[in-house]
User: Fold these one by one.
Assistant:
Number 1:
Amino acid sequence: MDKIEHIGIAVKDLDAANEVYTKLFAEPPYKTEMVESEGVSTSFFKVGESKIELLEAIDPESAIAKFIEKKGEGIHHIAYAVADIKAEMERMRAEGFVVLNDEPKKGADNKLVCFLHPKSTNGVLIELCQEIS
Ligand code: ZN
């Protein structure tokens, strides 16, 4: 794995959260993006080499809506950058991790992504992501 690509934070109100994080970083998000397939609206802030992704549910059935219902706002996932997501998914399966996707899927911010179930990673939802070149 190359680095922590971003940390995903589940929020109830993206506009309000954008204001908070714009104050925090003294810089607005460099991107906001709707990911219809995931039922979320997202924004991204640069923090040095890493990023913060804010996620608001736009679909009450989405994973983010369910997460907030259960746990409230807060850290939702940690994303690690990988060079070859397919190879890493295979390696993770061989190591016994529960990979939630059969194939990498198109995520936000021009990435191919997959997720590892928190039950196999000490309670933390992990995203692997590979930049689409
Ligand atoms: Zn993410």
Number 2:
Amino acid sequence: MAERPYIVGNWKMNGTRSMLSEARAIDRASQRLMKVEVALAPPFTLIHAVHKEVQQIGVGAQDCHHMEDGAFTGDVSAAMVLDAGAKFVILGHSERRQNHGETDALVKAKAETALGAGLRIILCCGESEELRDAGNAENFVTSQLKASLPEIAANAAEVLTIAYEPIWAIGTGRTPTAEDIGSMHRAIRSLAVDLFGEESGGAVRILYGGSVKPDNTLELLAADEVGGALVGGASLTAESFLGIVLAAADLPD
Ligand code: PGA
């Protein structure tokens, strides 16, 4: 792995201020684990509080609106999460695509707005179990990415991370084999190179997500072209999340 592994915790719809102590503990320990880049994406309501608590780790949002501002009751803009302390936003997570009907075109519009506001993005992709079983996973994921990725004029690797998260592995305890992950990540890498050029596309980080736990981190992160992990359930306590960060720190340089 060329870059430092990037380990991002996605708290989803979990967390009130009582969880700030977990963020603090994750941050303190990460200060001693400089081989790993660590970030948390808490719910909107905690972004500012987590941002104020931490010194080392990155803070991001889990979504933002595709419009800059306006009459969108209950929605949150890219500028708002930036103002609250977020440096990045996760976009196109399968839970947003499934539960909120987010299309590739909408994810792309959100990505353009987020980049325009000065946020970095983590753009998610991933296939259903049916598509995996039918042998169509790579075709589906590369098409999904082609339709969801924004055009990026500058150095794509500085503002874009891609997260491959097979839907059937999220929250289920099941994971693909290291071979399957490697093969998917190679396909994503070659798409990134096509879209953003050899140097920039070659440096875009590609995270794996879906049932990452302390005891499978080493194996999953050792797969080809895996630059880190997007972690849901196991990011909710400092103990389990730091288990993952520690395992990532053990990866050979
Ligand atoms: P999980 O979620 O780690 O709980 O499987 C991953 C994700 O949805 O980002």
Number 3:
Amino acid sequence: MRAKNIGIDLGTANTIVYAEGKGIVLSEPSVVAKNTKTGEIVSVGSEARDMIGRTPASIVAIRPMKNGVIADYDTTVAMMKYYIQKALGGKGSKPYVMVCVPSGVTEVEKRAVIDATRVAGARDAYVIEEPFASAIGAGLPVMDPTGSMVVDIGGGTTDVATISLGGIVSSRSISMAGDKLDECIIYYVRQNYNLLIGERTAEQLKIDVASASTTLAKELDSQTIRGRDLVTGLPKTIEIPAEAVAEAIQEVVDEIITAIKETLEETSPEIAADVIDHGIVLTGGGAQLRHLPEVISDATKVPVFVASDPLDCVAIGTGESLKSIDVMKKK
Ligand code: ADP
Ligand code: MG
């Protein structure tokens, strides 16, 4: 039986696999837990993520991708191998695989992704630029002679791009996204409440109450969080107002807005006009941050929408582009 071709969104936070003819078959955190002594893989995905901050000395939970590129090659290969096998259910021959890479990566980084995918079990691997994939997944008319703007807010990076006639016209990538929001929350709680909280607690707090607008955050309920008191060293529970969380992440939101404005300023008047007509589309997990469309729209005077299923856009677009693998193979 011929293996299904697959598309992989190899993200800093999540890896999502799309199988030809089936759609999304797997979506798991990009985390691998390893035994530090033997190097053996203990678990991959959500099980490994639940171990972050809770591992004994003999186990490490690794996030092998950093800012959209491979930071730990061997662990990335192990993770992809596991996900490719899981997605195919061990059936059929080796698949052709399309993997997304951030726009603006170097040739070396691109090579590393292709090599890793081959070593992980692909018959052959191809790459597609991430903003392009996310725009396809968001349903934007990427092939038409009209400009579209997509802003993908992931774990490691926020990627802003304008697209027209099947190509990226202008783009920008900044290391200000989901992880940075979590870091800012950890820092703020430490500075203002003398409380040390973990990555997972900060992320949950972000998902539960964070808002891109300090003004609109006033309407949200405060949240209870637990951590370690830096003075007594003991566990402690505090109540944090939603407004404080919004203040903690303000700087990151501002940087994202600046990147969008700069990209808009660089585009031709025609594309800028198209973007005003169609609006800016937000994708990626970070697109779900409360009040983000309002705040961006307010700053740019352009309508802003969140794509439906923002977390899946890149994988869907990567999967859609599998159709072009047949064309590429003939080259
Ligand atoms: P990547 O492509 O880098 O793997 P994703 O697009 O999967 O990233 O998005 C993951 C990021 O989205 C994480 O930082 C996660 O905390 C964040 N995220 C998920 N849900 C929400 C939410 N409701 N509000 C804000 N951020 C969220
Ligand atoms: Mg992504």
Number 4:
Amino acid sequence: MQTSTTQTRQTRTTCCYCGVGCGMLVQTESTGEHIRIKSVQGDPDHPANMGQLCSKGSTLGLTAQPHLYEQSRAKFPELRRHKDSPRKRVSWDQACETVAQRFAEIIAEHGPDSVGLYVSGQLLTEDYYVFNKLAKGLIGTNNIDTNSRLCMSSAVAGYKQSFGADAPPCSYTDIEQAATIFITGSNTAYAHPILFRRIEAARQKNPALKLIVVDPRRTDTASMADLFLQILPGTDVALYHGMLHIMLWEGWIAQPYIDTHTEGFAALKTLIRDYTPKAVAEICGITEADLTEAARLFACSPATLSLYCQGLNQSSSGTDKNTALINLHLACAQLGKPGAGPFSLTGQPNAMGGREVGGLANLLSAHRDMKNPEHRQEVADLWGIPTVPALPGLTAIPMFEALAAGTLKAIWIVCTNPAQSLPDQTMVHAALAGAEFVVVQDAYAHTATTAYADVLLPATTWAEKEGTVTNSERRISRVRAALPAFAESRNDWEIALDVARRLETLMHAGSQSIWHSLFNFTDAQSVWEEHRATTRKRDLDITGLSYQILEQQGPQQWPYPQGASTGTTRLYTDGLFVTPSQRARFTAAPYRATSERTDARYPIGLTTGRLRDQWHGMSRTGTLARLQAHAPSPSVDISPLDARRLSLTDGELVYVTSRRGVQILPVRMTDSIRPSQAFIAMHWGAECVSGHAGKSVARGVNSLTIAAIDPVSEQPELKFAAVKITKANLPWYLYAFAWMPADQAVRLQIELRELFDQASFVTATIFGRDEMTSKNGQMETGLSLTMANTEAFSEALLRQIQLIFNAYTTGEQSSLSFRDSRHNSQRDLSITHTQTEKYISSVLLTGAGKDVAAEVWLRNYLENQKDITALGRRLLMPGHIPPEPMLARGRMICNCFNISEDTIRAHLALAPTLEKDLALQSLQTSLSCGTSCGSCLPEIKAMIASNVH
Ligand code: SF4
């Protein structure tokens, strides 16, 4: 469609969040020089999602609105000349030259292994390729690792150990062909929502399809299971060995397959003798009957598909967990056929692409092994250099430990936020603070990590980049630019290229011999074509594929060798594997407990995981008010039994203390968790929640987690830490909330971080509805700050907060104020006047905790923009009961239609005896909830189930 001034365009691209890799259609509208995203829809032709998008994907366009980018994006390169001076804007030339020179100096003085690159599973394959070549080909170090180390390196190690290659054998279509789906260590409903939609659809089509879920928490995924095994954390290996023990005893194994296609079964058979049902049920905390039923459903089903993720990988025995699960598939011949196989779900959008280019400290291009001299020579020959380094590189945790120890001098961090996401944040922050030279390349300017950058390099992000990604099912999709680069940002591979060319000139300076640049790339396609050449005759051979084929035929699964006309749906269909004997390998590894155990001092096992609507450190999703609505503030989840034992009420503040740190949080009681266990979402980092306890600085959930790693995969144990939970007893509270102009709220939330060290507990988040217009016609977003402290808040702090919360008022305003110096309490309200009404636009409450808590009804008035004309000065009376009951907005369940938990419960209460399917239908017809992206469906169904008796 075209008018004289406005043009619309549609761009086919890929979601930048999880490893499902959904295709999307982005509609942009341009007028003159201005271009904006009008809508984002699922691509009906993409085989991963067939038109669907989840709550995160469907709101990607909203996260890219100019007013949000203005507040959050890195706009231009910045440089600080001295550690204690602020960064200043510089040109790209100055920034890249500084990075190249400092790296060259440090390499010349301390050797190539004195520098490191820490990159990301969110980079495109082309970005990854250039960074990997820069480290291993030019600098001559294997010190390049990625945040994918935190999410799937155990899966890589498991596949390589069992099959001889890092190749997930399955496809998403196996979901529709499976007779049993075994989800283990994955909250698929939250982490891979569109796959969960496919599971729901498959079950609807085939009611005989069995769903088994294994998880220490009763997640939304678990609530849909036919059989739920709520195992104790970290006991997965014992569970799988116990299942195999039963399968052997019952004769449910596939002996001909074992004899023909595998090796090492005798040793495993000996090992699992000890894993009797009784012993395993005790270790795992489940019943023998459930264990037996799981073994039967797994082994006797015509096709069993395992889906697994961080619950297996983020563990100090992550590789053993992966191989023990694969053992079950091999023993029952549950792979290489439709609907069957061990299918690792990748957390990030391009963790697979990173593996393909060898962008990890222990890998080389195209799944080659860095330890293998022939592989090293092959890569050196492909790159036209004498050798690639043989010394193993530093993986994520050792890299930051080396930085802390001073043996690693300089680090270049790309598209990731280790000062939020790595375990043991005290160590990580000390490492970054003490490093000689820190380069941070990111699209977002205000992550916890950018604070440490000596050089900040602004990068492009989703909807601005060109290249490819590979999803969990080995499918390569094109990523295309719908928008121009924001401000002065550049593509990640181009930044790497610029620095690499300068660095190679510096490194060759003084050399008499003729040298040729390793970096003669002209565009993303030329990078990809060099990567393609490295895959020839490898298990992931894509020599038959091209950008043109991806353009014409859409996303394709590897391998796609020369001569092929289509990609490969399923691997190992012939029972031949990539090991020297072509047989798959059984691994006989005994069950090992978590690296840290609970004891009398730290009696509670803490686990971490995802929220439904947030992504990683929230640098993007945290800027969108509607994505905060499902889980508006941080909490630690504990069982009602533990809450009673500790005399805690819902929302009460507690110290969560591990051997590494402390974080104060409100408790949330939930029966989804077993007694003596706790859960904190992985997203809550120093950007949103902080405080101090004595000398210790709290930096969110990873203040508590442990840096212990798996000995093979070197993946850290983010899923388990021993903690204690104790009442915080903080007498003084501060609660401020306000409507802010939408183009200021995120910036002010960032500004509030300056105050985070002034209380024992602090959290600041945004709330509201995006593109919400207030009664005076302005687009507004809510900003909320909660603080709690051992001492009353100082006048100076209150003034600072008032300045931030009252700085942005529009239209006619009045204010109400009440101070009680005897009780150190204060109440300030700003009132906005329209022609006919008055409503509350900001509130600041301080005082004793229980008094402040009693005033939350003011938040309901503010959020609902309720007319307060009739309340008059009663608004200032402490302990005043609002004159009319008002339904709290509560937690939002359906984000698409803005339907809260309370509204759904109220609707269900109207017809409590309605049968489940009819209750869902009634909700969908009356409120529309669950009829768009579907991310809320598991929770709505669980609410219906708890309502119907
Ligand atoms: Fe994106 Fe959601 Fe699809 Fe994952 S499931 S790729 S987050 S739309």
